[in-house]
């Protein structure tokens, strides 16, 4: 631990000598490469991780199995490199190193998640695993000692297998189970954790896992399970919010919200009305479906989404809509249940209208949306195929959220980042963070959007779901061949630390090897 601390600090100091001048960007950047705009002092800068992607120790100290454990053990070829999360970055044993890394970055906030089956091995609250409780209490204590505020996600996709066996989020009873779990967690950790996010990325979770077979549980209940999952997750979130609000907030005095996700959608041809409508439909089907019930004044699903899925269901011969219906009481229960708008954003697509594309199933969310999405060949793709770099997308999505839901609650970027194929000299990641954060400054200063926090994804290279360990998102490199899972800071870690220190983007801080990273 000590030696890691020294390594991290020495490497960071050594790399300060790498500061030279690069070309580029815009008139809002001064001659010395510094952005003219800055982030306010109280802006929450952090990094984010998730339990299943880093902890390992899948069966240690009484932990129950999550659906990802069980599924990957049964289907070892599911991930592209045939790996699983059994060891991951071994943060169950190395969390103290992780905290030293956080300190070396200078972050004041750390978004992490609790593994539900580590606390409740069978999913339900009749039995609590004390070793799991001790583990998280120690992390929170160490974080607070290091003056880092924990921001804690209750559910980042690692559902206890015992509950998946009951149908996972397609089962209405999950709403009760999630509330029970939330009660346990608030009671056990609410003295130390003051910012909660109930759930991570409802769209990705339900679409990849329940509509498609891209993520566990690989249910392929296309066009049906995907909306049951969305519906009961929204209700579960709302129940946890009210539980906290009534029973815990008065004493614990914290905040609680939700983390959604979206790729921004640009019309493929902005002069073509159908493309413009397709882009809006994409945003409504991917984000509005989850955000409107919670953040709009009137609540409930957006009219566009409701009508579209109702009509499709009718013409397809279904006796009722495949999108479940909230009762008026449920609309009220879900409305307004978030103290902030947590949004994960990575990339943008070009949208055009289409009634059928190769690969779409009928029914399915894609078919219901009727939007063909593609990437602009001009956008760089440094790692995974889906992540094309288009920095203005962040400014645009923050504006879209503001225009649709107002400024009652602040926006927090709960994840943003890029993957590459590895290495310490991660110029693409440096460039990505500089440019995306710069667009965020523009959204805040020029457009008046209320953005109060930003979390980089992610602290270190980790288990990237179906991509296994093949793509790297970390600010710190992890040597997965090393028995100690050795961590080393990348150039992007140094750059992020400098942004946090100065509250500005310094485009000259890391010397870029060529102009190719400055072409946006
Ligand atoms: C969002 C998810 O929350 C996170 O778990 C994942 O690793 C990143 N996207 C990158 O794909």
Automatic annotation (TrEMBL):
One of its GO terms (molecular function) is beta-glucosidase activity. One of its GO terms (biological process) is carbohydrate metabolic process. The active site is at 415 (nucleophile). Residues 1-27 form the signal peptide. Coiled coil: none annotated. Its EC number is 3.2.1.21. InterPro entries: GH (IPR017853), GH_1_N_CS (IPR033132), Glyco_hydro_1 (IPR001360), Glyco_hydro_1_AS (IPR018120). The keyword Glycoprotein applies. Homodimer. Belongs to the glycosyl hydrolase 1 family. This is beta-glucosidase. The lineage of its organism: Eukaryota, Metazoa, Ecdysozoa, Arthropoda, Hexapoda.
